[in-house]
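Morning, I've got a small favour to ask if you have a moment. I've dropped the whole record in just underneath, so have a look.
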Amino acid sequence: MAAGRKTGVGAKREAEEARLAALRSYHVLDRPRTPVLDDLTRLAASMFDTPMAAISLIDRDRQFFAGSLGLADDETPLDVSFCVHVIPIRKPLIVPDATRDARFAAYPNVAGAPNIRFYAGAPIIDEQGHALGAMCVVDDRPREISDRQIDNLITFAGQAATHLAAIRTRLRVADLGDELAQAGQREDDLVANITHELRTPVATIQGYLELLGDQDDLSPYRKLIEPIHRNGQRLVEMVDHILAGTRPPEAPLPAPVGTVDLATVVAAAITGCRPLIALRSEPITVAAGEPTPVRADLTRLAHAIEQVLRNALLFTPRDRPVAVRVTGDPHPAVEITDAGIGIPDDELPNVFERFHRGRYAREQAVPGVGLGLTIARNIVGAHHGRLTLTSGPGGTTARITLPGTV
């Protein structure tokens, strides 16, 4: 019996060493966070409506955040980690209220800042079957999530795994001197530097503003705090937008990285447009039938659809309909139809040009810098798809057609 137990312990130790070796092969520990992983965490937080999200990689004695939103530290010890509990079970861990869970109630990050209450994490499992860490969303309020949301979290974790694999491959190829991989790495380094110099300080300011906004004795100043917070977020989004729209031709967009349901991508895009949708007296309608799998970078494709939908919302009176339809026949496609002002015939050939703004946008001071459709077309093109627009006095129809997974 003793020998059997020793063998079991030895096997576990050997498996853990193999997992740690696999983790280190990705070369993301102790490096500046890769923008694509930060983007994925921001999208997850937005979809789940949580103030915090992370891609947590579980090292020997710490968790390192390869992607992060709303968390002050780059890493924490394992003794305050929720994600470390995901590794042995290799399935989602849902904690509706950490203060009522004996495993976590005494954690410093539960009893004090950031006052974690809700946690949901799904394992990030690589192609060799190693559980590298967890994709998690975190809230400072107790809550429940649906089975559909858990499925979405699993999808996000799968995207994180394939992004990590792509990062590792590109680093290896760049080390061999491939110019295309080096160009992509240079762009990642540039964006990471901008993130460090601009976005990170703004995010820190945003975090302090949220803390101030929760103080009851500062309630008279809340009207001042909220617009500062809102405009800080606009600044971050504008920097991201300009970077995406002016990327150099030698730095190609990432290739599609995983299979996702097109309806999930559309749901993520709609989440990004919630502030505009909330202003409408006529809600948008969404039609999606059977699951429509596509090979896609979830974050990028959602961003492309969001840009097209944002245009429809901005150029359609608030009391007129905007409809989104997902179809898989004959090819996976997203169709966005509005009853807006339409695009004049003489402007239609130019709408995909960088910084193009039509007459109506200029005259009515519609927000934007004229990069949305450029970004959308480039992202769809990187997915081997096509974005087309048809327009008339009765409105505009945008159609994004993508190849199937077969």
